[in-house]
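Hey team,

Filing this mostly as a record. A colleague (T.K.) asked me to run one chain through the structure pipeline before their review meeting, and I want the input and output archived in the tracker in case anyone asks later how it was produced. No errors, nothing strange. Just documentation.

Input sequence:
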Amino acid sequence: MLCWIHFGDVHAADDDDDWRSVDDLAALARQAMGAGALDFAYVPGDIANHGTAEQYARVREALAPLTLPCFAIPGDHDFEPGTLDAFYAGLAADPLPRAIMMKGRRCLFLDIVSNGSGGPDFRLGPDQTGWLRDQLAVSRTDAAAPLVFMHAFPGDLWQDAATIGQLFAEYDVAAVDTGHTHYNELLNDGRVIYTATRSTGQIEEGPVGASFHAVDGSVVSVRFKELARPWPFVLITSPADRRLVTDPTRRDQVPGHAFTVRAKVFGDQISVVELIVDDHAAVPMTFDGECVWRADVAGLDDGEHRIAVVAAGTNGASDRDTITVAVAQVPAGERPPVGRRPGHADHSIGPWPEHGLLGTQLGPNSNGRAW
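Output structure:
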């Protein structure tokens, strides 16, 4: 299992919010250190609202408490000066594109801004597209499916949008993690799960927070945590919620009548973790190391079932994550074809308030303010 925390677009600036988003980022970074069992942190671009050296210096200071690896990529606001020199120097970032192997999984970090003309002119360019294709081809021999990190969905690219979306589908990318939208979003185009986390700065609605991501086998899980919410925090990592099934032939996505439920419970001093299936009585889960808890389920009929994991902490706080699982004794014979316009926002799964998806799409690309 690979697990990371996503700090949404920071938009660090003093002219818009008097560095409030940087203060929030610092609080999120401090909180992340108490989560336990995270593999890395990720910032998806639009880090400095105007791409200035001072803005990057403030962000770097805010992230200083992190002992996790932290990977940052640029967004259109970072490219506002017409160069990414300040981005690379200010964050001591490695050149992009970049491939990193983590727990047998190839993680590909892309730059979709500097090949364009500025603003939301997103494109990879021929060299980076060739590099991406080569990396995805090599990933066929990896132990686990690859992940991609880019500033926006392929559907937002101004060049080769369909080609890139088809490429991700062809090579069975497990998930593509993005920012840019200013709202939380999940897409499922029938092959790939696409995630977007709302901004840390330029917030359209609701309190500040960060999203927790896990890829457990072939199952992708994402849930947004508000900064003010105390530990514990629960994320069910297997099996898949029915809305996030990309391969119905996989038993960790569409299980049979008996299966194992796994969940990450973040935070220390956990007193009890329990599993509730439909309206049955709660049963205790077993600690499996690295914040993972597990319990076996048996005797379920074909159809949809509600799976809930409830955790209580010694601090008196508790949390619950709930998913809907599609159970089928006979697995699907084959995967359906790739949907129309892969990687496009057309494939949104819709509102899921319990995971932070409000469905309002309040952001500069849709219904929000003209930032």
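Quick notes for T.K.: Residues 242-327 form a domain with the Immunoglobulin-like fold (CATH 2.60.40.10). Residues 125-138 form the longest helix (14 residues).
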